[in-house]
């Protein structure tokens, strides 16, 4: 049931202006904002000007980012030309292009039956890194994706942020183009009706390399613990005019700053706004660079990361499935439910949307807040796979297209979304105890460990890890009960917050990071406790074989990491409960 917020929060959400939000959006999205371009820089400078006028401390800096900009693509079949686009991080063919036999495939049918070696693959759906990787490994020499009624811009590399000598090796080496359903139907018809192999020629040009990209940081200082901060971030770079993605979200960030400063809200801890480049064309190059170069500050002082993307779309009526961590679900969901009346179920973060801070152990909340209801069209079905909702079907048919213009925003939806962000941000910056539910985090880990135990089929014993996570859940519940007390001293608040942050620093990398906490996993979704995701390899290995013993060794070492990590979290929780 929708309820009215009262007091400070009620005052703040009433101050949110649809007119100002739309004006901010128009100013940000009046030019195409390719990463590292002059047009993008003007949008950054505009955001800085607004934040300066609000009295925030701002810093616009520049760094090297590995950026990939699609330039041009051609596709010809039997002398007939087809309109198409190419994609970020796809390879360029050169003037000679690439030609060969066309073959239609269905990746969902049976990947093992792919017969694409030395052929060009035609398939339905939006161009994704996973599909490109499968085709490349299968020996295809090119890929043609049938998107739907309109082509969607995409980045087809899994490499997160700037490449390293190792990750550079896995950048795509395949030329990739996308066509609409209209062109795709003609291509499929040619395949069905031709008595001879259908020959295709395509040419792609993608400008990929290092260029300077901006980052804008703006701080609104807290008064009690100014060194601690809530990070509120979003990207400014865009595909085409990007009015929804990400002009509406940028406007929301600016409006939150305006509302907080004009109402003279006294923050306990600081608010740090971060505007990234390199999101769309560099696979989160901006946020990754910021993490790499501010790792200790983020680890020691950032209490929560709130992200804003693609807000205020027309028809965006689904708000209850926004991304969250289980430990932030109750906090964020409370405001969604109060302000919209919609039950908040939330969904686990996928590996996307500038979520570059998991290695730092920082709790995260939201990515895109509002989504479209599911549809039956090809584009919607593909977007559902990308976004993973039950009721929600992504950000709209215009997402990542030339049609993402100002008319795709609903001023009232944008105001609604901004009001939720305003309430969330103001509360997170002013409440005494940071809003993290460690019992919920332990429950998610417990469910994952129980599932892995079942997968292991007795070949490795997870009982100690399960015992420890059960104990951690009990401690988390006790922490939650203590937090409900109102008579906290300043010293007690400080010590409890430090403990909650320390537990997050321990548990979030365990739950979300497969590799090194100081590195960045590839852009591929991970299950909970991803270091154990290979458990089926042990279960399926024939006992007594080399593979059996090798996988048993691997999984035991990884299980040691899990057990020891849980032990450290238990010790931290027990220590603070004893102290307070």
TrEMBL record:
GO molecular function: carboxypeptidase activity
Region forming the signal peptide: none
Peptidase M28 domain ranges (all copies): 216-416
InterPro entries per UniProt: PA_dom_sf, Peptidase_M28, Peptidase_M28B
Pfam families: Peptidase_M28 (PF04389)
Name by which UniProt lists this protein: M28 family peptidase
Organism, as annotated: Exobacillus caeni
Taxonomic lineage from the root: Bacteria, Bacillati, Bacillota, Bacilli, Bacillales
């Amino acid at each position: 049931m929708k309820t009215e917020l009262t007091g400070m929060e009620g005052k703040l959400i009433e101050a949110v202006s649809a007119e100002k939000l739309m004006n901010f959006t128009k100013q940000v999205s009046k030019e195409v904002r390719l990463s590292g371009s002059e047009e993008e820089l003007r949008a950054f400078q505009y955001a800085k000007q607004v934040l300066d006028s609000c009295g925030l401390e701002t810093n616009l800096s520049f760094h090297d980012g590995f950026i990939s900009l699609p330039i041009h693509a051609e596709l010809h079949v039997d002398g007939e030309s087809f309109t198409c686009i190419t994609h970020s991080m796809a390879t360029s063919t050169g003037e000679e292009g690439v030609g060969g036999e066309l073959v239609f495939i269905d990746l969902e049918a049976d990947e093992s039956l792919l017969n694409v070696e030395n052929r060009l693959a035609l398939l339905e759906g939006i161009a994704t890194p996973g599909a490109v990787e499968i085709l490349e490994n299968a020996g295809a020499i090119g890929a043609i994706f049938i998107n739907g009624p309109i082509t969607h811009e995409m980045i087809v590399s899994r490499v997160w942020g700037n490449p390293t000598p190792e990750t550079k090796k896995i950048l795509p080496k395949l030329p990739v183009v996308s066509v609409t359903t209209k062109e795709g139907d003609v291509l499929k018809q040619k395949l069905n009706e031709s008595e001879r192999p259908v020959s295709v020629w395509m040419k792609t040009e993608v400008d990929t390399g290092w260029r300077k990209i901006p980052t804008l940081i703006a701080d609104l200082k807290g008064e009690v613990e100014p060194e601690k901060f809530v990070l509120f971030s979003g990207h400014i770079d865009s595909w085409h005019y990007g009015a929804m993605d990400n002009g509406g979200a940028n406007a929301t960030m600016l409006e939150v700053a305006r509302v907080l400063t004009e109402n003279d809200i006294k923050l306990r801890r600081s608010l740090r706004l971060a505007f990234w480049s390199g999101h769309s064309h560099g696979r989160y190059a901006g946020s990754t660079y910021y993490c790499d170069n501010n790792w200790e500050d983020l680890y020691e002082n950032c209490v929560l990361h709130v992200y804003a993307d693609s807000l205020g779309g027309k028809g965006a009526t689904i708000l209850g499935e926004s991304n969250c961590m289980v430990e932030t679900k109750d906090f964020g969901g409370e405001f969604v439910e109060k302000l919209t009346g919609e039950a908040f179920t939330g969904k686990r973060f996928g590996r996307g949307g500038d979520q570059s801070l998991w290695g730092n152990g920082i709790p995260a909340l939201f990515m895109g807040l509002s989504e479209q209801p599911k549809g039956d069209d090809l584009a919607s079905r593909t977007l559902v796979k990308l976004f993973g909702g039950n009721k929600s079907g992504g950000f709209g048919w215009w997402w990542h297209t030339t049609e993402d213009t100002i008319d795709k925003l609903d001023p009232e939806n944008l105001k609604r979304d901004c009001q939720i962000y305003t309430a969330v941000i103001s509360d997170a910056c002013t409440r005494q105890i940071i809003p993290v539910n460690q019992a919920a985090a332990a429950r998610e880990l417990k469910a994952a460990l129980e599932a892995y135990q079942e997968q292991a089929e007795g070949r490795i014993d997870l009982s100690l890890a399960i015992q420890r996570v059960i104990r951690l859940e009990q401690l988390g519940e006790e922490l939650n009960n203590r937090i409900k007390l109102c008579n906290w001293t300043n010293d007690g608040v400080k010590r409890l917050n430090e403990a909650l942050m320390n537990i997050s620093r321990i548990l979030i990398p365990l739950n979300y990071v497969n590799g090194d906490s100081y590195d960045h996993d590839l852009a591929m979704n991970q299950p909970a406790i991803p270091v154990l995701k290979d458990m089926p390899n042990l279960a399926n290995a024939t006992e007594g074989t080399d593979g059996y013993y090798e996988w048993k060794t691997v999984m035991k070492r990884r299980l040691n990491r899990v057990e020891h990590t849980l032990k450290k979290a238990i010790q931290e929780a027990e220590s603070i409960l004893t102290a307070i």
